[in-house]
Amino acid sequence: MRPSGEASLWVAREREIIAGLCLTPMAGGAWLTSVFVAPPRRGQGVAAALIEAALEDSAGPVWLFCEPGLSGFYGRHGFKSVLTLPEALSSRLQRYQRSKPLIAMQRDLT
Q: By residue range, what is the domain housing residue 22?
């Protein structure tokens, strides 16, 4: 993770850190990045619980970029594929897509 100065880092831990993510405020919403769960803990709801905790006090849309194979996971947690992004994220996505396939997703929070 390379968080900006405004980003919030979230971790789940037992005796040690088992998962983490980064949530960065953006104009009108937030950008979710770097979701990672230790391989032995995957499939146990850790990422979902961490995402929900991180977004609990958020309002507005939350955007993320993910590999196409992860869209089902994020879709089950309220994210939908989108084509329109804030300019700062749109240009970043275009740059990232030069080296790997990524899709943009958004979850609206009220």
A: 8-109
In a domain, 3, yes or no: no
Strand order in the sheet with 17-26: 8-13, 17-26, 29-37, 60-66, 103-109, 80-81
pTM score of the predicted model: 0.90
CB 22 within 8 A of CB 7: yes
Residue in the structure block whose two tokens are 């995402």: 51
Q: Is the dihedral of CA 27, 7, 13, 80 positive or negative?
A: positive
> Model confidence over 99-108: pLDDT tens digits?
999 999 999 9
In a domain, 90, yes or no: yes
CATH number of the domain enclosing 35: 3.40.630.30
